[in-house]
Description:
The chain is α/β, with parallel strands linked by helices and 257 residues long. The chain has helices at 14-25, 37-49, 64-78, 101-129, 150-170, 188-201, 205-213, 225-235; strands spanning 5-9, 29-34, 54-58, 83-86, 132-137, 175-182, 247-250. Helix 3 (64-78) packs parallel to helix 4 (101-129) and helix 4 (101-129) packs parallel to helix 5. This is D-beta-hydroxybutyrate dehydrogenase.
Amino acid sequence: MKGKVAIVTGGASGIGLAIVESFAQVGVNCVIADMDVAGGERAAAKLQEAGTPCLFVATSVSQPDQVRHLVDATIEKFGRLDILVNNAGLQFVTPVVEFPEERWDTLIGVMLTGTFLCCKYALPHMIKQKWGRIINVNSLHGKVGSPFKVAYVSAKHGVLGLTKVVALEVAEHNITCNAICPAYVRTPLVEKQIENQARSHGISEEEVIQKIMLEPAAIKRLLDPSEVASLVRYLCSDDAAGITGAALDIDLGWTAH
Length: 257
């Protein structure tokens, strides 16, 4: 994978940053796309200091013009685009009857429309070079539902359909497209969810972790971002060339019931 070029959305922190760091270990040049300018610039500077070429591009993935700029900046900097990791995400927790419509639009825009836009503008470059890998960092909630998360669950279910369509359309060009569906990962996004769930359910944050997040799982712990990053890296390798259109679980045994 040395010398390949990857865009990682939501790459300034959490799972995205773990993916960027994992790629850097094997010589992949990364473009970090994020709305967190300070975090993105800090992450890119750290990698460059370590000798890994890296670029940060401030991006709202729900905006077509910004996604086009992201891809154009990548090609201008590195001359190619081999890997796209759609990881950008956010959460809002409240009952359906109270769910603000503007929040619905924002979550769907980032996680579903954003994934579509990034695929749309990245794929022509992959098709041209006859090689590419697209990884959609989805969620266990792309397969199951949870109360109070209507926009998140809806977006993540949609991404699984998008993953299958893209996989079928571009297979002839030696491009694969897969989704990863983790259970709860210890990230800033999940830490915020714990707080919101506690408020919605009227229980303590520790009870949220034990009774809601971990109760259905066989392995009673949160995932580490590096575990997701390891699977992303494998799916981007030639060893995974036969895997496409798949939704791979890292769910701590949640769906084994």
